[in-house]
Design a protein that fits this description.
four-stranded parallel beta sheet, 13 helices, about 35% helix, alpha/beta, elongated
Length: about 325
């Protein structure tokens, strides 16, 4: 039913880009006005209670380096894009982000410092990167993968406070919260009987409701077929083709379209998959891998796409 082995490359990607646990179903903006930031006068100096400790930023940063695709998206979303001088090689959104060969999986202190940053964002610290940068006077905020929607909101607001874009960050949180709520409210009753399969890669790794993405999708109240087989609570179990076929999900969500070329056509060619209810009814959603593996404002776009697919399915079955 479930395989235990997980490829090293996928494991790193899951830890850095996609994982989380115990997502909140609350889509209202969290109250983080004074809990994690302490602005003074015009906002600076500002103190951020980041996961890597208390970070003080003396003045408005003008040379920000982001070694996190999610932080890059958030920085531009809150209006701090003009302050960003370099981002890692995976930060492909927005298109005008200053992409470099900096590597998010293995951040290098010397390479980052060469851009003379006055603030650095990272999502993964494999060793002493944050401490090393701080030792040479460069403040670092470590924003690890969000564990809930509220956690993501709090990170966005910290980005706003750290860059002098407090009002803009609050607006992004409010807009995203509204979009998520509107999408959920558009769903009819009875969605809790709909099952779905979320595909991380073509070897049938999936994501349960314990992950950030699984919890986000859980707001719809659909049932995730991966949940019952994740006995260890890992969050990313590897299913088998037989289990998926036996479960016959009503909706299939493909989060491996960019990386692996998965599509409605390719999965229909898999042995036995052409009989799956989701394939027969065309209830297969080709997601953007990047959006699905990050916790930036585009999560609203992802949920809206999924909700649209559910509504189309309901209309077909009506």
């Amino acid at each position: 039913m479930i395989r235990k082995f997980i490829p090293i490359a996928l494991a790193v990607a899951l830890v850095v880009s996609a994982c989380g646990a115990d997502i909140s179903g609350d889509t209202d903006p969290p109250d983080t006005t004074t809990a994690t930031t302490t602005p003074v006068d015009d906002g600076f100096p500002v103190t951020i209670a980041a996961p890597n400790g208390t970070v003080t930023i003396e003045s408005r940063p003008e040379r920000i380096v982001s070694i996190s695709p999610t932080s890059t998206e958030v920085l531009f979303a809150v209006g701090a894009g003009a302050q960003v001088v370099a981002v890692d090689s995976l930060s492909n959104y927005p298109p005008n982000a200053p992409v470099t060969d900096l590597v998010a999986f293995t951040p290098n202190i010397e390479a980052i410092a060469s851009y003379d940053p006055d603030l650095v964002f990272i999502s993964f610290d494999p060793g002493e990167v944050a401490a090393g940068l701080e030792a040479i006077g460069i403040p670092v905020i470590v924003h690890e993968p969000a564990v809930s929607v509220d956690d993501a909101y709090a990170q966005w607001e910290q980005v706003g406070a750290a860059t002098g874009q407090i009002a803009e960050a609050a607006a992004v949180v409010a807009e995203t919260s509204l979009r998520l709520a509107s999408a959920i409210e558009s769903l009819p009753d009875g969605i809790d009987s709909l099952t779905y399969y979320y595909e991380v890669d073509p070897t049938y790794y999936s994501a349960t409701s314990l992950t950030f993405i699984g919890g986000l999708l859980g707001l719809t109240e659909m049932r995730n077929i991966a949940d019952e087989v994740d006995v260890d609570g890992f969050g990313f179990p590897q299913l088998t083709a037989e289990y998926i076929i036996d479960s016959d999900p009503g909706l299939i969500l493909l989060a491996d379209t960019r990386c692996c070329g998965a599509s409605v056509v390719t999965i229909a060619e898999r042995p036995g998959w052409d009989t799956l209810t989701a394939v027969v009814t065309g209830s297969v959603v080709e997601l953007d891998d990047d959006i699905a593996s990050r916790w930036g404002p585009r999560i609203a776009e992802l949920l809206e796409d999924v909700v649209s697919a559910i509504l189309e399915l309901e209309l077909t079955n009506a």
